[in-house]
Design a protein that fits this description.
Distance between the termini: 66 Å
Radius of gyration: 29 Å
Order of helices and strands: HHHHHHHHHHHH
Number of strands: 0
Mean pLDDT: 75
Strand content: under 5%
Shape: globular
Low-confidence stretches: none
Amino acid sequence: MKKLENKYIYAGITAFCVLMAGLICGFIFFNFDVVTAAFGKLNSALTPIYIGLVIAYLLSPMVNGMERMVFIPLLRKINKTDKRVRAFARGISIVLVLVLAAAVIFWLSMLVVPEVVDSITNLADNLPDYYRNTLQVANDIGKKHPEIAQYMKESTNTVYTQVRNWVQNDLLPASTEILGSVSDGLLSALGMLLNVVIGIIVSIYLMAGKERFCAQAKRLLYTIFSEKRANRILSFGKDINWSFAKFFSGKIIDSIIVAIITFIALSIADIPYTALISVLVGVTNIIPFFGPYIGAIPSALLVFLASPFKGVIFLVLIIIIQQVDGNIIGPKIIGESVGLESFWILFSILVFGSLFGLIGMICAVPVFSVLYKTVKRWSHRRLEKKGLPAETNSYLRKK
């Protein structure tokens, strides 16, 4: 009798859950705009939390190292109470790491920003000379190849007409909207600054109590799922943490080294806009596969405008630097952290880049690496249950 009652109770609960799920799906379908707007507001409200999570994730390894190797051994000589020592060491480590990170960002800004500003100023000052050089090259080509000169003249007239019409018909009437956009941009910048400040405060709380937060998450997992499934989820989480931490820490260090090498090489070769190009090459190098091209192509065009001969020298230098990075520096720092073949790296960047833009391109490789490892592990388990070999080489066609 009791089993029968339980059966009806479970059936009732299941029917209720199905009904509620249907009602929720129906509400979302018929009020999609409202739901999207609500999620947009929620996402905007959670922006400081996202920033805090990123800051805490990036700085936690340094906090752990400083706490474990410096302050805990030092404070244990003063106070033997382990709990107080750990709490005090954690607090000092967090403060020092945040101050150190702020100092490094400020130092880099003072080192790079003036150079970049000077490069942009020189570029603006020299634009008339570049224009005259371009005209001279066009005239020289025109003397030798009149048909090319005629085509260039017609193209120039077409571009000039289109630009003039755009200024008269679109730019001037929209000047009020542009000023409004500038004001909105300033407000957005202030809002972003406020989010960063709140994010830093959030990161302090996260780094101070990360063990407790992780323990609470584990307890919730074991509450909801069976022990076996919870262990698999935790293993999946470890894969995510390992792939992202290994890839991004290595990629950032690799990009800094590439920027420094580029700056030194371009300075020796007396290439114009050295600081601007070095920063551009270093930043775009964070993007796997396409990053070097994204940074090198506009930089090469910029140098070619100043001097075609130095543009050729720049191309040779940047190709050498990228080869050294791709074959020596990158593998040494990042190693085989992603565990993906070149095809899958290219595939992941194209897919995630088309779906999520620049952020998708940057995160594509570690995300796809986790998915690849998960599918591979699942495939191994299934093949082993069937008594089949798990290695890919076993399925290659024998000649």
